[in-house]
Records
---
Amino acid sequence: MFGAGGGTSSYTEIEETDVIVLWGSNARDAHPIFFHHLMKGLDNGARMYSVDPRRTSSAKFSDVWLGINVGSDIALANAIGREIIDAGLDNRGFIAHSTVGFEDYAASVESYTLEFAAEATGVPIGAIRELAHAYATAEKAQILWTLGITEHHNGVDNVFSLCNLALLTGHVGRWGSGLVPLRGQNNVQGGGDMGALPNKLPGFADMADPADRARFEAVYGMELNPVPGKHLTLMFEAMEQGSMRGVYIIGENPADSEADIGRIRRLLSGLDILVVQDIFLTRTAEMADVVFPASVAWAESDGTVTSSERRVQRVRAALTPPGQARDDIEILGEMARRLGVDWGDPTHEELWDELRSLSPAHAGMSWDRLEAEGGLQWPCPSDDHPGSPFLHGWLWEDDLGGREPAPFTVVAHEGPKEQLSEEFPLRLTTGRALDSYNTGVQSGGYDSPIRYGDTIDVNAADAERLDLADGERVRVSSARGSVEMSVRVHPDLPEGLTFTTFHFPDLVDTNLLTSDAWDRRSGTAEFKAASIRIDKLVAAGGAE
Amino acid sequence: MTATETETTVSLTIDGRTVEVVAGTTIHKACEAAGTDTPTLCWAENLTPVNVCRVCVVEVEGSRALVPSCARPAEDAMVVHTDSERVRHSRRMVLEFLGSGVDLDQAKDLARWIEEYGADPTRYDQPDLPAVTINEPVRIQDDLYIRDYDRCVLCYKCVEACGDDAQHTFAIAVAGRGFGARISTEYDIELPDSACVYCGNCIAVCPTGAIQFKSEFDLRAAADWRPDEQTVTRTVCSYCGVGCNLDLHVQDGRIVKVTSPVDHPITHGHLCIKGRFGWRYVHGGR
C-alpha cells in the first residue's frame, strides 16, 4: 500500500491505540500471540470493532461485532467512508496535504447510504454509524485484516476500500495508527520482500524497470528476462491451455490447498514433468515425476524470515536433516549447476550480504546485527539505522519526503461471484482452527486435545430446518463437487452461513467445494464464498 | 515509547551499597542491579507480581514487617537488608514450610537456596507427626500436559498466565480452601473438556514442574531427562506470520521441549498450541 508491500505498524502499537478494527481476521485463533498484544490494548482501554460473518473467538472480545454478509466488505467500508464525510469527521488537512483523488472517492461513496449498506451487509445502521464515528474521532486507530479480506474475487479492491478509510481520517503514518495485514505464514512477508513474486526482484525492485534490472544484472553477471512471470492462478490457466508443460514446486501443496481442487489435480497430473521439493511426500509430491527431499526450514536450516511487522529474524538449524534431505539452497545450487551455472557454495551470510547490496531496505541489517539485536524492521537502510517501527511517516512531512501524495482508489461493491441459488442455498466460508495449519501436513503430526476434525459448522435454525443433528454425517455439495462431513451445530454462525476448515484433506476434500473465482490482480481465489447444499445421507424415514 | 530522558531515578542502599535505579523499579530488580541474588518462586519476569510465596522478602528499615521485594517499588533513601538474620530466618522458614508438604525436586535453583539458608524441610516430617502431603496420582489426560499436584505450591503463576497477564482464557483458578485448595478447571472437569486452549503458557511459568510437558514427564519417568546434555537453539515458529521466537531444546538429536524467551518483545515468553507442541512432524511423518 502506498508503494510499500508491508504492514504499517509494530505489534506494540496496538497496545497503545484507541480504536481497533479487526476486519475479516480471527487473530485469536490464527495469530494467538499477536492477540496477546491486542488484549493489552483492550486492557489499556481501546475499543474494538470486529467485522466478521462469524462471531469468532476474536469477535467475542470486541465491543461491537458487525456480523457482515460474506463478501459485502466494500459496501460496508464505502458506507463508513460516506458517513465519516457526511458527519464532517474527515481529516481535511491531511486529505489536502497528503492525498489525491478525494473528490472522486467522495462522489463514488455517495450512493453508499447507511440504509443501502445495512441491506447489503446485514449490519444494523447503528453499528455502522458507531464504527464510522469511533474510527474517525479516535486519536489513534488501526485497521487489521487477514484472509477474510483478501480471499475474494475482488480481494485487492477490498484492501483498497480499507486504505481509503485510513486516508480519509489520517490513521496511517503515525505511532498507534495504521493498516495491518496479518500474515498467515512465517515468511509470507519475507518471500515477497525477496522477490518471490512474478513481477518483482528482491527489495521491491520492478522487473519491468530497466534501471532496476540493470542493478541486478551487474551483480548476477547475466542478463535477466524482462517479462514478468505468472502468479499461481495464471500458471494453472497456462497449464489448462497447454502452454505450461513443466512445473517445479517448492514447499507448497497445491493438490490439497487450491480452490476447486478437482481441476487442479487434473492439471498437475497432465503435465509433461512435475518436480516437487518438500519435507514430506505430500499429495502434490505423490504426483511428481521427481521429488527433492528438503530440510525443515525453521529447525534444520539457517536463514531469515520476515514477520507481519516487517521484522527480519534469524532461523537456525537445531537438528540434522534426516536421510537424503538437504537445505533448499543447496538443492537450488545443484539445480543451477546442472543447468550450467556455478553459484559455488555460498554461506547463508554471504547470500544475505548479496541481498543487502541490492535491497536498500535491508542494507543496514548485517548478520551480526540480526544476531545481536534479535531482529530488525525494514526499512533499515544503513548500519546505524535502528529499523522502522512504522511506515509512511512521510505522509506527515511538509514536503511528503519528496514523494507523490497517496491516492484514494475508487472501488465498488459487487458481492461474491457465486450467488446463492435454489440448488445451492447455503453460503460456505472457510478458515483456520486454533490448533491446525493449512492442509495439515505439519500440524497433523501432533495429537491436539482440542481438534474437532472434518466438521461443517451450521447454525441451529438451519440444522433444524434441514433436520440435521449435531455429529450427523452429511453430504455437502457445491457446483464443483461433493464430500461427506460431520455436522457441528454452532452458535457463532448466523442463519444461512456454514463454515469449515481445510486442515484435513485426508478426511475431507474441502477444496472440492470451494469457488475458483479469483482476483486477476492478486491471483487469490475466493475461498471465502462458495454456495453449497447439505443433504442427509439417509433419506428421512428411510431404512438405515 | 523510546523516550527515556524524562525518567526519574531513585537512590537506595542495599546491604550497604548505594544503587541508583529508575523510579518504579522493584526492590528485587534493584537487588539484581546491585549484584545481589534473590530467591523467587511466584515471581516471573513476564507476570504481574502476586506476592504469595514470601521467599523473596527483604528487610526495609522503618518497615514493621518484612516486604516482598518482587512487588515493592524501590524508594529514594530506602535502606534494604537482604542478608540480615531476620531475612535469613524468614526465608529458611518459608522454604521449610513449602518443602515439607510439596515435592520441590524439580524447582529450579531451589536446592541451592535450601542449602544457602540451611533449611531442613524434614523438620516437619517426624515419625510421630508426619507431614501432610497432597499425595495424589499424576493426572494425565492427553498427550501434551501432565499435572502433578504433589509439586504444586499454589503460587498462582499458571492462573495468571492463563488469565489476564497473557492468554485471557481463564481456564483455571484456585478452587477450595486451606489444604483442599487446588489449581482447578471449572468444576474440576478434565482439561480437554475445559476452556483450556493448550497454549502451555502455564507450563512455561510453573516453577516446580507441577504442570509439565508430557514429553518431559515421559523422559523423566524413563530416567532419560538429561538437561545438561541438551542444546537450546533459537529460531522462528513457522505456523503464522507473527514471528514468535522458539527455543528448541534438543537431546540426542530430537526436540524434547519448546519454550520462548521471556525477554523477547513479540512473545514475552508465551506461545500458542501450534508453536509449543506442533513440532512433532519434524521427527516422524504425519
---
Amino acid sequence: MNLIAKTSSRRIPIGLILAGLALLIVSIGLTFQTGTAAAQSPLHPTFPFLDQEGENVLASGRPVSTMQTCGQCHDTAFIASHSFHADAGYTGMTTPGDTSTGRPWDTSEGLYGKWNPITYRLLSPAGDEDPDLTARTWLQTIGLRHTGGGPAEELGVEMNCFLCHLSNPDNEARTAALQQGDYVWANTATLLSSGIVTEQAGEYLWNQDAFDEAGDLLPAFLSIQDPDNQNCGQCHGTVHDEPQPLVLTGCEQTGWETTTTGMVFSAQRISDSGMNLDNKAALTRSWDVHMERLVECTDCHFSLNNPVYVQGSGVDSLDNLEFDPRRLEIGEYLYRPVHEFARGQSAQSSLAPEFRDSLRRCESCHNTEATHDWLPYASQHLDAIHCETCHIPAMYSPAIQQVDWTVVELDAFARTTCRGIEGETGTIADMVTGFSPALLLRENLDGSIKLAPYNLISAWYWVAGDPGRPVSQELLAEAFLQGDGYHADVIALLDGNNDGVLSSEELALDTEEKAAAIAARLSALGLVNPRIQAEIQPYSINHNVAGSEWALRDCTTCHTEDSRLTADVQLAAYVPGGVLPEFLPGNNALTNGELLVDETGALVFQSDLSEEGVYIFGHNNVGWIDWLGGLMVLGVLAGVTVHGGLRAWTARRRSKHETRIEKIYMYSFYERVWHWLQTLTILILAFTGLVIHKPESFGIFNFNGVVLVHNIMAALLVANAALALFHNLVSGDIKRFLPEPRGFFNQSFEQARYYISGIFKGEPHPFERTRQSRLNPLQKVTYFGILNVLLPLQVITGILMWGVQRWPQVAGTLGGLPFLAPFHTLISWSFVAFIIAHVYLTTTGHTPITGIKSMIVGWDEVEVHPSETETTEEN
Amino acid sequence: MENKKPLWIAVVGLTLALVFIPLAIFLPRENEQTIDPWANVPERSPQTDHTYLMSEPFEDGYAVTRACLECHPNAAKEMMATVHWTWESKPYDLPGRDEPVTVGKKNQINNFCIGIQGNWQKCVSCHAGYGWEDETFFETATEENVDCLVCHAGVGTYAKGDYALPLEGIDLLAAAQSVGTPTRQNCGSCHFNGGGGNAVKHGDLDESLYWPSASIDVHMGEHNFQCIDCHQTTDHNIKGRSISVSLDDENQVYCTDCHGDDLHEDQRLNAHLDTVACQTCHIPYYGLEDATKMVWNWEEAGQDIGDDPHTYLKIKGSFVYSGDVQPQYFWYNGVADRYLLGDPLAEQGPTAINYPQGSITDPAAKIMPFKVHEARQIYDTINNYLIQPKTVGEGGYWTEFDWQLAAELGSEITGLPFSGTYGFTDTIMFWPTTHMVQPISQALQCTDCHSPEGRLDWAALGYPGDPIEWGSRFDHQD
C-alpha cells in the first residue's frame, strides 16, 4: 500500500487554492534539502587527502597529513601556531617549579607540563632520572585529551582538524591508536567512522570508493562542519543532545568538566534524565539553559578573529563608536582562522593567560539591569556576586570531592570520592543528591572581587625526593599491592576490623601511624623522604546555568544566619596522614575562610567573608550591638518594674495625699494626631526593623513586603517630624522642648529626687504642668536628645541605607552598610528602651492612665500646687 | 469648649488613616498581574435530584423525552437547532465553489466508515435523537425524537444501539431518575468512540480521559475538569468545533478563553504566540495511553484471515494503530477545505478530506498540531471521485462483501452516479490535536523544534530555514 510518508516535508498539498503556495514550498524545500543533505557544510569543496609529502594518500597509502590536506586552502601552519589547544603549554615550558602553581615539578601552565592529581601521571621535568612520563608516554595517557600539534608534532601527531571539524569523528579509534603508540596513524584513525579509511589488524587502508577518479573525496563522505557541542564534549565533558534520557551513574568518569564540576552540557530537562537523582521529578529545568536555548559552545568560545563575533578594535576605547564595521573578510578569516578561542577566567586553567576574559560575559548578552528590577539593592548584588552564584544554584551530577593518592585501590588508582552522591557502588543504585557549589570570592582581571561558584577538589599524595616529585603510580602499586590483592603488611596495617579484607573505609591513612608505616614502605622502595602533601584546587563552575525561575531569588537564602554565601563545604571525609591541604596558588579564588576538622574527622572549609570585608545584611550581625541594645532594654524594663512595684507597694501603705486636681486642655488636636502618628509609625518601624534584622526568626513574613512597609513608615515618620518641627518653630512652641539653662541642674535634680523618693511618699510632682510648661526638666533633656540626636541619626542612617542603591558613594564615604546597618540597629534599641521608659512614666500622673488618656482626648488632670493655684484660678 | 467629645475619635481615625492609606497605596497588589484562569471556569450548579420526579416506568425513549419536556418545554427545540441534532453545518461559502455548501456527518464522507448515508442503522447510534432510519428522518422528526438521556443520564445507566434507539434492556426509569449535567461519560461515549471504537478517530480524545492522570490531561487529570467546563453550553448549543465535521472556527473553544494572551514569563515564549498555537507546545504527543488508529486500508477488507480489532477486520480491512504519536504540524487559520461528494480526486498524491487552511503569509494562521489519518478507500475509477458505499444492512458490504453492490446501493442513496468500475485510492484526513494538554514540565522545549533534529519541517512550512537564525515570518515584511 502506497501511503504517504509520515514526514510532512513530502506531503505537498494539491488543493486548488494552495497550488501556488505548494509550488513555492516545494521549490524552497528542494533548495533547502540539497543544502542539508549528508554534507554538513554545503559550501566546503571536496579535496584530495595528502600525506606529509603532499602526495595523495590513495597513491602513497601513507597516513593523512592534516597540515598538508587542510593546508591546501587554509594556513595550517598559522592555525597550529595560534592555538592553545595544540600548544598545551609546550612553548611556555619553564624550569620546574617556576609556574603559577608553585609545585616543584610543574613545568608549564598547560596540559603538557602542569600536573594534576586527578590524572596523577607526571610529565617528568627534563633531566629527571627515571621519568614517570616522557613526551611519548604523555601522548599515550594525559595527551589523549590533546588535539595534536604542539608537543605532539615531533612524534608525528599533527594538529587534528578532524577531531573538531567532522560531524562524526572517531575519537575512540584515535585514542586507541595513540595508546598503542601508533602516533602517525592517530589522525587517520579519527576518520575510521566516516568510511574513508578502514582498519584491519593495525593496517589502515584508504577506501578507494570514497574518492572520485581525480582522487578527491566524494561529497557524500564530506562531513566538515563548525565544531558543534559534541566535538567539544569529546574532551571537555558530558554533552548530551539526544532525545533519549541522559544516564550518568555513580561517581564515574564522565568527561573532564563533568567529573571535576558536575557540569552537564544538555538541553534536556533534568527530570527527563535516567539518573537516580533525588527529587528528580520536580527538576523540570534543563541542565543548561543556554543549551536549551540553542547557544552552542562556539557561540561564546569563538575564534578570536571570527568576524561574526569579533567587535573589532577601537570599540572598547573610542567614545564615538558603538560598532566597528571594519573586519576581516570571511575569506581572510577562513584562510587564517585564529584557533585561540575566547575563554573566561576559570580558576583551574592557567594556560594562555593573555586570552583570559576574552569571552563574552553574561552581561555582554543579557540586560541584567532590566531583568533584576525586582531585586532590592540590585547594583550592590551585581557588584558583589557573579551571575553564576545565583543562576547556578546547584549541580545535579556528582563531582570529585577528594582524591586520595596516599593509598591506592586494587586497580592502582587513587581512592576518589565525589560530592553530590550517596553510595559508593559506582552503579545506578547510588543516589545522586547534587550539591551546592562552594562560593568563593573571585578576583577578576578588572580588579573586581565577586562571589562565584566553585567545586573544591582536595587531593592528598605522596611526594619524595628533593626537589620533590609525586611518587609514581607504579611504586605506589608496588608498596600497596601484591598479586591480585593488597600486600599482607598493608592489610595488617589498615584492616581495622581484622576481617582480612580492606573495605573502602579502611583504605585510608587516617592516623599518623598508618601514614608513617606507609612512608616506611615507600622508603624501603628507595624513595627519599616520602611525605604526604595535599592541595585544594578550586574548579570554576560557569555552565549549567538556570533561568530566572530556578535561580536563587529568595532573600533569606543568603540574608540569614546560616547564609548560603558562607555555608560550610566539606572537603574530605577524612584527612589522610593528618596533613591539611592548602589552596593551590595561582588561581583567581580568594580563600576566604579556614579549614577545620570536625568531630567526625571530616575536613570542612568554613567560609568567612567578613574577613574580606563582605558585609551580608541579615547575616553579619554585629553581635555586641544586640547585646548592648538588649541589655539597655532589659535594664530599662527592670528599672520600671522595680520602680512601678515600689510605687504600688508604697501607695497601698499610705493614704492618698490630697492634691487638687484640675482639668486643663493640654494637647491640641494636631499635637495628639502628631503624637499617635509618631507612636504608630515608630512601633511599626521597630517591629518591621526587627523582622528585617532577624528575618530567619520571622519566616512567615514576606521580607520584601516588610522592607517596603518599613520604608513607607519611615517616610511617614520623617514627614510627620518635619511638619511638627515646622509647627513648633513657627508657633514658638519649640521653647517647651528647650531645656532652660538657668536652674536646669537644680530642677533636674529635684525631678530626679522626686522619681527616686518623692513619688513613693506620695509627694506632689515638683513641677506643675501647664499647657505652656508641660514638660519637666528631665523630659525636656530626654526629648531634646531624642529629637535632636537619635531621631536625626536614625533618619540619616536609614536614608543612607535606603540610598545605597541610588547613591552608593554617599553611603560609602560614611562607612557603607557595614557601619550604617549596625549603627541603625543600635539606635533602634535606644528607641525601644526609650519607649518603655516613656510609656511607664506616663503612668506617674494623677492616676496611671491619666497621661495616656490625656494624649487621646486632650484634657489632662493635673495637680495644682496650692501656693500657685490661686492666681491661676482667679484668672 | 470642653465637650467636643468625638474629637478623640477623629484623632484615632486620622492617625490610623495617615498610616494605612500610604500602605494601601504603596504595597503591591498581588492578584492584579495576571488574568485568573479560573475566572472563566463555570461554577457547577447543584443538581436537581430527579429520583422522585420520575416515578412511572417508561415504555420507550420517546416517553422519557415527553416526561422531560413537561418541565423543560424549550429543551428539545433548543437542542434541535444545534449540530448535535442536525449533523450538518449552516450553508457556508467555501472558496472555489459556486454555491454555499453544508457539511456534516449527515451528508459528507470521512476517512473512517466513509459516510452515514444508507448506513443509518449503525452510524446514527451516536445521534442525539431517536429513530433515524432513512433520509426522511428530519422531515418527520418531532421534539419527542430528541434523546435527552444520551447527554444527561447518569454514569453507567444508558446506552444506544441501532437507529439511535436505547439498547434493549436499558432501565429507562433508572436512567431518567439519574439525570444531571453531562459528565465525561455522556460526552465520551460518543466522542471517545467515534469511528467505531475507543481511540479510533481523534488521537487526543479516548477513554483514557475518563480518569486521566495529570500527565495525560492537566485540566481533567489535575484540575478535575469536566468536558463542559470548557465546552460551555448556552441553550443546548455546546461550544467547540473541529474541522473533522466543520469548516470554520465559529463557536470555537480557545485556550485564551481562560488563559491570558501573554502568560508566559519568558518573553521569548510570548514572541511565539502570533505564530504558534498553544497546542503545538503543550500537546507534544497524542494517543498517550490508548493507541489511536493512524491508517485504515479498506482495500484489504473481505478476507478471512482472522479478525483483530486493532490490525484487521474482515468487514473493514487492515489498520495501523500507534501510541505516543508526535503530531504533524501545519499552518491553520481556523478554516478547513473540504472534499465534497462528487469532487474529483487529487491529481497527485492522496486526496485530502479536510486540508487545514492557512500559510506562512497568512497572519491569522498559526502552526498547529494535527493527527493525520491515512486511508485507502473506494472510488469510482471512471468518474474519478470517491464513492460512499453502503456498508450496513441489507446488501451492504459488511454482509455481502461485494464492493460492486455496495457502491451501487450507495449511489442510489446519495444520487451520485456510479460508473460501474471502482478502485481504491489514498485519502488523508486532518484531526486537530487540541485535547490532552499536558503539564508544563512536558511542554516542548526550544530544541524540540529549533535544532537539526527538530520536529518542525521549516521548508515545508515555508521558512527559508530555522527562524531562530533566519528570523520570524514577520521580520521581513516591512
